[in-house]
Design brief:
Blueprint: E1 11-15, H1 20-31, E2 35-40, H2 43-55, E3 60-64, H3 70-84, E4 89-92, H4 108-118, H5 120-136, E5 139-144, H6 157-177, E6 182-189, E7 192-193, H7 195-203, H8 208-213, E8 221-222, H9 223-234, E9 245-248
Parallel strand pairs: 1-2, 1-4, 2-3, 4-5, 5-6, 6-9, 7-8
Helix pairs in contact: 1-9, 3-5, 4-6, 5-6
Length: 255
C-alpha cells in the first residue's frame, strides 16, 4: 500500500503524461488532490487521459508540448501557471528509446533526436519550471533518468548518454536551487511495463523473459511504482533529499 499524500491547492506539471509512467504519475498527483497539467505530443492520448481524470472530478489542463522545442515548453509551463496560479511539482518524464545499434554506425540524426528529447528536453523543462518556482521560493522537481543513466549497455550509447546527462543536470541544478527552497531529484527506472517497453519487445530489441531475469526482483516494474517514487520525492517525507539519482529498478544496479 502506498502512502497517502495531501496535495490539495497545489499544482503539478507532468510531461509525457499521455501514457506509461507519465500518466500513472499524473493520476497519482490528481488522486492526492493536486491540480495537474498534462503535457504530451500525442493529442489523442492527452484527450483520453484528461477525460478519465475529469470524470473522476480532478482539475486538469492539457497542453500539446514537444519538449525538444523550448518555445513549446515555455508556453506549456506558462499556461500551467496562468491556469492554476502557481507551480509546486514537476515530473519531467518525456523520453524516447533508440534502436540497438553499433556505436560506429549510429546516425547523427538519431543521436540528436534522442538527446534532444531525453536531455535537452529535461533542461528546457527545468529552466522554465525553475523560473516560476524561484519566484514562489518553493517547489519540487523530479527528472526521469534511467538505469541507463547509471550503467552502460552495448548498442545503446546515445540513449545512455542522454540519461547520464539528465543526472548531471539534476545534481548541478539541485545544488543551485536547494538554498532557494526548491528540491530537485531524479528517478532511474529499471525495465518498466510501459508502451515504450512493449514496443521494444515487439521489435525484438528486448526479450521479455531476459528483461525480467535481469532485475533481481524477478519481474518488470509497473508505472504505478514509478509514480509512487515521484510522489515521495515531491512530498514532505523527502524534505531532506536533494540531488539524488534514485534507482527504482528492482535491484538491477545493486549488483
Amino acid at each position: 500500500m502506498n502512502p497517502t499524500y495531501y496535495f490539495s491547492d497545489q499544482v503539478a506539471f507532468v510531461t509525457g503524461a499521455g501514457s506509461g509512467m507519465g500518466l500513472a504519475t499524473a493520476r497519482a498527483f490528481a488522486e492526492s488532490g493536486s491540480a495537474v497539467a498534462l503535457a504530451d505530443v500525442d493529442d489523442d492520448a492527452l484527450s483520453t487521459a484528461a477525460t478519465e481524470l475529469r470524470d473522476a472530478g480532478r482539475q486538469v489542463l492539457t497542453v500539446h508540448c514537444d519538449v525538444s522545442d523550448e518555445t513549446q515548453v515555455a508556453a506549456a509551463v506558462a499556461s500551467t501557471v496562468e491556469t492554476f496560479g502557481r507551480l509546486d511539482f514537476a515530473y519531467n518524464n518525456a523520453g524516447i528509446q533508440s534502436p540497438i545499434i553499433d556505436a560506429a554506425d549510429e546516425p547523427a540524426e538519431t543521436f540528436d533526436r534522442v538527446t534532444g528529447i531525453n536531455m535537452r528536453g529535461v533542461w528546457a523543462c527545468m529552466k522554465h519550471e525553475l523560473a516560476h518556482m524561484r519566484t514562489q521560493g518553493s517547489g519540487a522537481i523530479v527528472n526521469c533518468s534511467s538505469l541507463g543513466g547509471l550503467v552502460g549497455l552495448p548498442g545503446r550509447a546515445a540513449y545512455h548518454a542522454s540519461k547520464h546527462g539528465v543526472i548531471g543536470l539534476t545534481r548541478s541544478a539541485a545544488l543551485e536551487y536547494a538554498p532557494r527552497g526548491i528540491r530537485i531529484n531524479a528517478i532511474c527506472p529499471g525495465t518498466i511495463e510501459t508502451p515504450m517497453v512493449t514496443e521494444m519487445f515487439a521489435s525484438g530489441d528486448l526479450d521479455p523473459a531476459q528483461a525480467a531475469a535481469d532485475q533481481p526482483i524477478g519481474r518488470l516494474g509497473t508505472a504505478e511504482e514509478m509514480a509512487a517514487a515521484v510522489l515521495w520525492l515531491c512530498s514532505p517525507g523527502a524534505s531532506f533529499v536533494v540531488g539524488v539519482a534514485l534507482p527504482v529498478d528492482g535491484g538491477y544496479t545493486a549488483r
